[in-house]
């Protein structure tokens, strides 16, 4: 699973435009997702990016929201965001995997609170599926630091995601009907806790042009990695983007 982190495109708990009254930006963002699904092709994607933040409402690529509190230390907001997780049987190389149902991405909505301290930014979030795709819930607790080495700023990050049983079963479970069609054992995972590590790098190419890169590794708990449709212990994503601020 992947959770959003705010910044220019798809990254960063500590936003670039924190000190600005309003920020408008545009560019392109891309992702490589190395899913843990068995015999599954790496998923590459690239989309245009649009960002706007006036400290009351914001648009950040595939996320948008409204702030209830937004000052130098605290950020409390309601948000909608795109959960970029899917399974397309046509992308599987193994015949048995191609007999499984498609798992779709969805739009999530919820609340997020972040507190900036002397030792980094601490963030808590909870969101639910808005499109009745899985009817699941994701909750996140995370920390991000900041290391400045101009023109590059590094953001080390660590966190833990909680997936409700409905969400875990939708993306990693195998129903009895799918089992009969594919020959894979049925699987009904419980709710799951998945720790993750990430590091984001923001390179200020010019005062207005930023390039960012963020690899992230999510460690799958046993209830997910023991699924017959999984053959890896981690989900790895690499996000990048080129963003121009106006």
How is the CATH topology named? Porin
CATH class category name:
Mainly Beta
Number of helices: 3
Please indicate the percent range of residues in DSSP E strands (runs of 2 or more): over 45%
The backbone outline, from C-alpha atoms, is globular
The structural domain count equals 1
Which class best fits the helix and strand makeup?
A: mainly beta
Return Rg in Å.
Answer: 18 Å
Give the helix level as a range of percent. Answer: under 10%
Major pleated sheet: 12 strands, antiparallel, barrel
Provide the succession of SSEs.
EEEEEEEEEEHHEEHE
How would you describe this protein?
It is built from 3 helices and 13 strands; from the N terminus they run ββββββββββααββαβ. Strands 1-2-3-4-5-6-7-8-10-11-12-13 form a 12-stranded antiparallel β-barrel. It is mainly beta and 246 residues long. It starts with 22 loop residues before the first strand and ends with a strand. It has a single domain, classed as Porin.
